[in-house]
């Protein structure tokens, strides 16, 4: 599609990769760096502006002014309270249109945001539609693979995450020796890893399992794993990370693999519905 690609950018490296990839492909880019989440200095090489997350009216106006018809929502954003939002006049109207979804879980709210953007004449596209190599493929990311005890923890993590995510609560769970050490809530994965570190038990370390929620849209808020995740898992005493193949964004696959190998962790992309029902043989 012609016209500039609008990128509403939160924190992390994915929005920057999207901007660079689109620019390499010859497509104009306009970045709205969300204040307090994205670092505007990262986008010095691209047309960009800083905007408050509550300034929805201005966001729409600036996207239109730059000829954006397609928009990507990318990057980490912590959901603000309504009081902290400080909505502008345009946002007040949009919140009324979003209705009760504003009080729901993140997936419910984001689905409503995508719908409203569509009603405003924008097409919200997925990050992986802009950069085809973002998503993980089945198999190990680094040199290490899970053994039988880790496989059992992954299987337990899948069961727990499915029950948790059905309520639109979170994407990640940490399991060690069958015991759930922590569930992801509003704090995000990095904070979850910080929280479970002091809870680790003696013996083999646990596993972070991070998956799509059942029925979750693949347009926004896909699970994302990067070097920071690997370092957080290592600091928490975990022995590995399991992510969903085809449903998880790897911020930089080579860097993730190198960081995992250096930390002695496995990172493996799995297909949850086909994950082995039986533990592998010892040493597998």
TrEMBL record:
Keyword hit for Hydrolase: yes
Annotated EC: 3.6.1.54
Keywords on record: Hydrolase
Domain LpxI N-terminal: from-to ranges: 5-134
Molecular function terms from GO: hydrolase activity
Pfam family, one: LpxI_N
Domain LpxI C-terminal positions: 140-268
Annotated InterPro entries: LpxI (IPR053174), LpxI_C (IPR010415), LpxI_C_sf (IPR043167), LpxI_N (IPR041255)
Top-level EC class as recorded in UniProt: hydrolase
KW GTP-binding (keyword) present: no
Official protein name in the record: UDP-2,3-diacylglucosamine diphosphatase LpxI
Organism per entry: Roseomonas acroporae
């Amino acid at each position: 599609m012609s016209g500039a690609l609008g990128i509403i950018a939160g924190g992390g490296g994915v929005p920057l990769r999207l901007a660079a990839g689109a620019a390499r492909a010859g497509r104009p880019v306009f970045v709205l760096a969300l204040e307090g989440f994205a670092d505007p200095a990262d986008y010095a090489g691209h047309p960009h502006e800083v905007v408050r997350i509550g300034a929805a009216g201005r966001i729409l106006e600036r996207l239109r002014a730059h000829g954006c018809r397609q928009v990507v929502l990318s990057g980490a954003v912590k959901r603000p309270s309504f009081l902290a939002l400080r909505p502008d006049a345009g946002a007040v109207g949009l919140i009324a249109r979003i209705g009760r979804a504003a009080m729901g879980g993140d997936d419910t709210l984001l689905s409503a945001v995508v719908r409203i953007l569509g009603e405003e004449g924008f097409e919200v596209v997925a990050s992986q539609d802009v950069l085809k190599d973002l998503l993980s493929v089945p198999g190990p990311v680094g040199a290490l693979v899970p053994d039988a005890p880790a496989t059992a923890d992954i299987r337990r993590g899948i069961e727990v995450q499915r029950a948790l995510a059905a309520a639109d609560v979170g994407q990640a769970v940490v399991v060690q020796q069958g015991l759930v050490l922590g569930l992801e809530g509003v704090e995000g994965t990095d904070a979850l890893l910080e929280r479970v570190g002091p809870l680790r038990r003696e013996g083999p370390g646990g596993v972070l399992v991070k998956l799509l929620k059942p029925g979750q849209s693949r347009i926004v808020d896909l699970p994302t794993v990067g070097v920071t995740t690997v370092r957080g898992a290592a600091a928490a005493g975990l022995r590995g990370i399991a992510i969903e193949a085809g449903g998880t964004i790897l911020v930089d696959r080579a860097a993730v693999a190198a960081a995992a190998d250096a930390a002695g962790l496995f990172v493996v992309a799995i297909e949850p519905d086909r994950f082995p029902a039986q533990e592998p043989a010892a040493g597998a």
